[in-house]
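Holo model, NAP. Inputs:
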Amino acid sequence: MMKCIQIDRYGGPEVMVHRELPVPEPAAGEVLVRVCHSGVNFMDVHTRQGKYRDSRTYPVRLPCTLGMEGAGTVQGVGEGVAGFQSGDRVAWCISWGSYAEYAVVPARLLAKVPDALPLEMAAASMFHGCTAHYLVNDVGQLGPGRSCLIHAATGGVGRLMVQMAQRAGARVFATTSSPERAALLREGGVRDVLLYENGRFADAVREATQGAGVDVVFDAIGRDTLRDSFRATRRRGLVVNFGSVSGSLKDLDPIELGEAGSLYLTRPRLADHLQDGSVVQSRADAVFGGLCEGWLQVDIAQRYTLDTVHLGLEALEHRKMVGKPMLSMTPLL
Ligand SMILES: NC(=O)c1ccc[n+]([C@@H]2O[C@H](COP(=O)([O-])OP(=O)(O)OC[C@H]3O[C@@H](n4cnc5c(N)ncnc54)[C@H](OP(=O)(O)O)[C@@H]3O)[C@@H](O)[C@H]2O)c1
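Output:
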């Protein structure tokens, strides 16, 4: 038997139920993993609230074991799985079930973790790291001579994007919500840090770029910032709306993109950028390599157990936490 946290219906923290269930069997194409650590993410709040109830990209089905990011050791493999065997150290994301002592994960979403990297760091970096990697490299195509604005730069994805964009040689503007968080970013080596200030960040970006705006704006905030993000983007530039922590803009007319300078607007999703096992492993290798080399950093904010993880979700939901909350199963094994 194993302990886990499930939801049978969507709603607030009250819908999370602690259960003891049989250890699952891996079906064809799946791997059974003994979970050591699980990442706690804003996406878990969205999952609990029912944001993915009709999603084709992320088809959550009830009852659902929460948690979509973890790391641990392989315990067994289903029919047709090649490349993984018992004892392998692995990590994954966007497959639900990591708030549990054991999880079955599609083999195509698993990455091997190098011996030099603690499993906790692998679990802390898989989801945000792979997201930052595809956004910076594939969507934004950042490099020397390119410029970008990254909103919510102290958030899990934002913080990694800033580090990767700087490493790629791009000029980076970063926004955050308070002077205290701005100071954290400056301490982390970000030169151009701005506060949102009801959209005045866009004026500051234009001023700093001789009126031109940046090549790419990464906006995970949505309703509160997206229109001002258009103002911060250069003519024919790219706006990447990859999240909506403040809600979605429901009344956007495409003509606005024309008026703002023939902008391109995209709403990408990680699932479409982790399309097969080799892509998963190569993105994970880039992230894990950065952590091992030391130029990439993930700050673990707080560690929880299955009994206390609801506090981590609450802190994320109410914006009380900087750094990554983690759920550790190790003391329970
Ligand atoms: N499309 C994809 O592939 C993809 C993948 C992963 C995540 N996401 C999405 O990206 C977003 C960020 O995810 P995350 O895991 O990085 O979240 P997170 O760690 O909780 O960070 C969110 C940050 O957003 C900022 N923020 C600004 N306005 C906010 C508001 N009204 N409520 C809450 N936070 C607000 C805060 O940073 P500041 O104080 O610095 O502003 C906060 O720390 C989420 O919407 C998530 O679903 C998308």
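The chain has a mean pLDDT of 95. Residues 195 and 247 are 19 Å apart (CA to CA).
Archived with the compound record.
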